[in-house]
Amino acid sequence: MPMRSLTLVGIIISMLTGLCLGVLVHLKNRIPAEQQSAKTINDAINQISNHYVESVSQETLSSHALKGMMQGLDEYSSFLDADEFRALQATTTGKFGGIGVQLAVVDGFITITRVTDGTPAADAGLIAQDRIIELNQHPAKGKLLTDIISELRGQPGTDVDLLIQRQDQKTPLVFKLMRAVIELTSVEGHLIAPGYGYVRIAHFQASTDDNLTQVLSQLHKQSPAGLHGLIIDLRNNPGGSLQGAVEVADQFLDTGLIVTTKGRLNSKSARYRATKGDALNGKPIAVLINGASASAAEIVAGALQDQGRAQVLGVQSFGKGSVQTLVPLTNAQALKITTAHYFTPNGHSIHDQGLTPDIVFEGSENELLEKAMNWLKSRKIDIVPGQL
């Protein structure tokens, strides 16, 4: 081989060797750089733990660090401690250990607003408007409502002690209850007029589709001549389970797209389609929304609107077009991470914009119901014998 060729080969080998060494050095330096962020966080936690004016545990500091980390991503991603994770799971599944009451703060007192039939609270004789004065021998007034709810929940079979002030009695009443499995029902319904049903979906959970099926079955039984139309009330519905929303929309769609999710990972991108069958056989549907209708509620309203299956009435919805995934951590904690955005069948993203109703109406609750009823009656479809 000529000397010139040997020299050229040597230059090329040297260049390749230098390039490989450069890549190796880059990779070697990159790993410590990535680890440096974790080291900085650990150093900061140790320094705060050692020097802060008051004693604070490293567990507390780690929790604060995780909360800040997640809040820095977006407004819907968050770190959940054990209590928050347990409460969210109960909301999603619709089952938890408790006594069967709904609470609110009324005039500064933790007050029972509703008692569910067939629960320990109902069996013990608790009623709406009862005020909780003490919970397990500790004063209830001044505590956060969320803390009281968390304390009332627990393992089925465990005891809860309540001191109750009833409106018509001067002496407080003592109750000892045993927690049981409580199943939340997210769907309520009744006939609003002969042949016309009203269904309110408070939130979406794993059992919402089954709850809706049961309510619709009751409405059909109460209307021997058949339902002429249905109002689905999604006002003040904050959302919940994506799967629950898809299943509810599918109840009224015979075919077509329900929702599309798009994420950075392929596993978080999907197209959800309707399966054959319409629970109302094409009868008209009016969907009610407001500024507190969000997420899964907007998925249902958007799907029925885009597919021309329902008329949406009310005011602009909240505008939460993102999907969160729960990622369990150690110590029964979890991360709620935004993993995808969703799009209505027509490809619209309602994130930070909301869903625009077909009929914008800002009247009172009863006026909106009347507006929806008038629209349904104007769309009445007579049943022809032999046809569905």
Widest β-sheet, arrangement of strands = 10-11-12-15-16-19
Overall mean pLDDT stands at: 87
Q: Got a strand count?
A: 19
Structural class: alpha+beta
| SS field, number of helical segments | 9
The Rg value, from CA coordinates, equals 28 Å
Morphology call = globular
Q: Can you describe this structure in just a few lines?
A:
With 388 residues, the chain is α+β, with helices and mostly antiparallel strands. It has nine helices and 19 strands.
Explain this structure to me?
The chain is of the alpha+beta class and 388 residues long. The chain has two domains: 96-183, PDZ domain (Pdz3 Domain, Roll); 187-378, Alpha-Beta Complex (2-enoyl-CoA Hydratase, Chain A, domain 1), CATH 3.90.226. The protein is built from nine helices and 19 strands. The protein has helices spanning 3-51, 58-71, 82-93, 120-124, 145-152, 208-221, 242-252, 296-306, 365-378, and strands at 78-80, 95-98, 101-106, 109-115, 131-135, 138-139, 159-165, 173-178, 180-183, 187-193, 196-201, 229-233, 257-262, 270-273, 285-289, 311-314, 322-328, 334-343, 359-360. A six-stranded mixed sheet has the order 10-11-12-15-16-19, sandwiched between helices. Strands 1, 13, 14, 17 and 18 form a five-stranded antiparallel sheet that branches. β13 and β14 form a beta hairpin. α6 runs parallel beside α7 (242-252).
